[in-house]
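Form 7-S
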Amino acid sequence: MNLSDWIDYKDLTYLGESNHGTYYRARPPARLGIAVKVMLKVLYRGASDQQWHAVAREIRLLSGIKSKYVASLLDAGHDNGRLYYALTYPALGTLADPVRSLSQSETLRALEAGARGLDVLHRAAVLHRDFKPAKIFIGVDGCRLTDLGTADETQERQGAPVPTGSIGFMAPEVARGYHASVASDVFSLGASMHRVLTGRDLYPDVPRENIVAALRHLASAPPTIMVEGVPEALRPVMKACLAVKPADRPASAAIVADEIAAAITEEPVYSAASW
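Output:
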């Protein structure tokens, strides 16, 4: 659903759908003291109780995590039962859809920021559960991990696990019906590295039109790992992230972030002028 205004946010521009809500670019209210546009997420009209609680949890998680590698919560509230929140707008796009082609150093720095953001969540006992290039925002002041709509606090797990994530980035054990873990997020990090550096999907033959068949494919078929386009120094860690057995993956996203940082040969500058 498209909106032109929302409460005291003006000039809304539709950006797309995400977990449980719709994203807009908007001019923020004067009360925030922000001169630039922000990204506004509004809960779907007629959302279920489950969706309402999911967005409420996302707001709570964002408000409790302070890091330059995770998107900052600028505002949050509700109107007639519909939750909303505002984040810094990624003026330069996402790692999945940047406003221009990225150099390898720019791509690697964005991946490093995403990995460090993932580690920040893990240190706070939070799993992202849907890490992928579209969740890494690129701004003039750096890159950040965002969209915690499927994030889960590890101590709150109850009942049987439900496969959560995106086809092509989901760990095989999650597709099999096991609980998500730090290791499954690390697999998604490796899958993201593979996608943006090689331009190839890990599962090129997955039947995406049928979710049940897709999950069966992810659960049983080994990933097709390519290395063309991946810096030689990063190939071992990327392959380790994509290990079928969770125990064979790097123990933390920070380990992967350090390897990515070491492979950057030229410091990128994310400025409006360069875009």
